[in-house]
Design goal:
608 residues; mainly alpha; five-stranded mixed sheet; two-stranded antiparallel ribbon; 27 helices; 57% helix
């Protein structure tokens, strides 16, 4: 009886159960999404100076929305503002208009985006298999997948791809032209790369597999539906195609291969000699998304389960809409290789499979696990039914007693015991599946993965925050990467902002960095004088280890520049830079392991 009730509770179609059952599974899905989001919020508000790693690039400049005088003529801020999608910028601007600081918004949005993605994932899954528990399993797998990587928590454009693309699938399956069209427009406004994925999936709606071969649909409405949505996609992408930028063009692949920034250990490491690493596990180049829940891989077996409905009865309930999953995979793979062929012009190839594969695998995994559990329940229940209706065969003579063996009792007991055993097996399978599903994150390192950075120099941030808004700071220290976020003051260069994909930006950024290294480690103050006058530097931030060889050698970013290698050799020979001699007499801040030299003091020393 327990197995029968459990079977109905887990795998019964929505049409055959009370609506409260669907509400329960949806509520449970949202509860887990909220739980993971709250774990992220706990880290986000663990200290006054906490920021998500990528927010330091994509959100720091948005503080201009609250104070337009911040970051004046700032190369770094202007660049990241120029590459931000229009919808993404507009949302943060709107939140700032109602008084929500962009940095605060970046901490709150992941919870909202996670809940939205969960709701749409549940809906999409139940449209593919109308079983509410399947929607719960798929949405939980998706949430675990999203929080095993720092895309969602970043609140950057790629975080919006999850809810918006799922919304696209939701409305596409419902054949809602307004809903699908709006979702495509939103994809273009927040994460333009996925407009290609959406357009490809729409075009594949015209293709059917009938009679063992591919055929085009004969329904004229499908063509009108497709044409209207492709037109929306084109209109959305047109501004990007026509847009010109002062920071372009995109770097060519041939040039990138020669740059240390793109080689192993570089700031934007991409090219690897090992083809397995490059195609399977490489950053930006790999086809498979990293860090996935174990159970999502059951989704790869879904096509097999669907081919054997006799053995897996619930497979019959899977709707024709399930073909959208292989369509997503096909288009994603096509765009992945297109991005490799036109390297960096379509941005990173992994961007075209990272989100879509996570979504498709979670949906397929949820459906596959539900179908498998149903088959196990059916197996256990059928055994019990068989035992109660089994016919008693005529007695056979026993070779040992010479009389007929009474098999009535034997057969009645044997199937009954077998039925109990199979009920236990079925219940054990259910417990194993759901305990693995729910408890899996407890056995995963760094879950949820948030990549939050905790600022460790509060007095330094406060010191610079009190300086004029047009202050420019020169430094090679890693802590300088936090100053635009926590102090709202500009820096000349910093590893966090060394993004080499656009030639117009990176050429100027690299020039600044090289000049900064040369000036900081020069034997005289002339290069420092020139750097201060050229860029209008107000302060120079140094660390106690700044003038040691290891400071340059053990930092991949600094070490990739030739002047750093030359400076390290001079330091090994005991030749100290001229700037080191000014630390004692020029410092206006000497706490938390940092020294701040005002440019005026350096200029005076250089002119003596």
């Amino acid at each position: 009886m327990l197995i029968a009730r459990l079977h109905k509770f887990i795998t019964a179609p929505a049409a055959k159960i009370p609506k409260s059952n669907t509400i329960f599974w949806l509520s449970l899905s949202l509860t887990f999404a909220a739980l993971y989001g709250m774990l992220g919020l706990q880290e986000a508000f663990s200290s006054k100076y906490v920021v998500q790693d990528d927010v330091r690039q994509h959100v720091f400049w948005m503080q201009r929305f609250l104070d337009p005088q911040l970051f004046p003529n700032d190369l770094i801020a202007n660049y990241f503002q120029s590459v931000a999608p229009a919808g993404y910028t507009a949302l943060y601007r709107l939140l700032a208009a109602v008084g929500i600081n962009p940095l605060l918004a970046s901490k709150l949005l992941p919870l909202v985006l996670g809940l939205t993605a969960t709701g749409y994932c549940f809906s999409v899954c139940t449209q593919l298999l109308p079983v509410p528990a399947a929607g719960f399993i798929a949405s939980l797998l998706l949430n675990q997948s999203m929080w095993m990587k720092d895309d969602l928590v970043s609140a950057t454009p790629r975080a919006f791809a999850f809810p918006i693309f799922l919304a696209f699938l939701h409305y596409l399956l419902r054949r809602s032209l307004p809903g699908t069209g709006i979702s495509i427009a939103l994809i273009g406004l927040f994460y333009p790369q996925y407009v290609f994925i959406a357009a490809g999936v729409i075009i594949l709606q015209l293709v059917r597999w009938e009679g063992g071969r591919l055929q085009l649909t004969q329904n004229r409405r499908d063509y009108w539906f497709c044409a209207a949505l492709v037109a929306v996609a084109i209109l959305v992408l047109l501004p990007f195609a026509l847009k010109t930028s002062e920071f372009g063009p995109t770097i060519a692949a041939a040039e990138a291969r020669k740059m240390p920034e793109f080689l192993p250990g570089g700031r934007s490491s991409f090219f690897h000699k090992n083809p397995v690493v490059f195609w399977i596990d490489g950053r930006g180049s790999a086809i498979l998304p990293s860090r996935q829940p174990a159970l999502v891989w059951l989704g790869l077996f879904l096509p097999v389960l669907l081919r054997f409905p006799a053995q897996f009865p619930l497979a019959k309930q899977v709707t024709s809409g399930v073909r959208v999953l292989p369509q997503i995979a096909l288009v994603s793979v096509a765009m992945f290789f297109a991005a490799h062929a036109a390297l960096f012009k379509l941005h990173l190839p992994s961007r075209y499979t990272g989100h879509s594969f996570r979504i498709a695998l979670a949906l397929a995994g949820g459906i596959a696990l539900t179908v498998l559990l149903d088959a196990v329940f059916q197996w256990a229940e059928n055994q019990t039914q068989d035992s109660s209706t089994a016919k008693t065969p005529p007695p056979n003579p026993s070779p040992f007693t010479g009389r007929g063996l009474d098999t009535t009792e034997t057969l009645s007991r044997s199937p009954l015991l077998s039925g109990k055993a199979k009920k236990i097996i079925a219940f054990s399978c259910f417990l194993l599946a759901f305990s693995t599903l729910i408890l899996y994150p407890a056995f995963v390192d760094n879950f949820p993965k948030t990549s939050y950075q905790v600022g460790g120099a509060q007095q330094l941030y406060q010191f610079f925050a009190q300086k004029p808004k047009d202050t420019l700071i020169a430094s090679l220290a890693e802590e300088a990467n936090n100053l635009p976020t926590f102090s709202q003051r500009s820096i000349l260069a910093g590893r966090e902002y060394a993004i080499p994909y656009h030639v117009g930006y990176y050429r100027r950024f690299r020039e600044r960095t090289v000049e900064l290294i040369e000036a900081q480690y020069s034997q005289d103050l002339a290069p420092a004088l020139q750097l201060i006058q050229k860029y209008g530097i107000d302060f120079w931030l140094l660390e106690p280890s700044s003038f040691t060889p290891d400071y340059l050698i053990k930092n991949h970013w600094r070490w990739q520049f030739e002047p750093a290698k030359q400076a390290a050799e001079r330091l090994k020979r005991g030749k100290m830079p001229a700037l080191a001699g000014l630390v004692g007499r020029c410092s206006v801040f000497d706490r938390e392991g940092f020294s701040v030299l005002p440019a005026d003091c350096i200029l005076k020393a250089a002119k003596k």
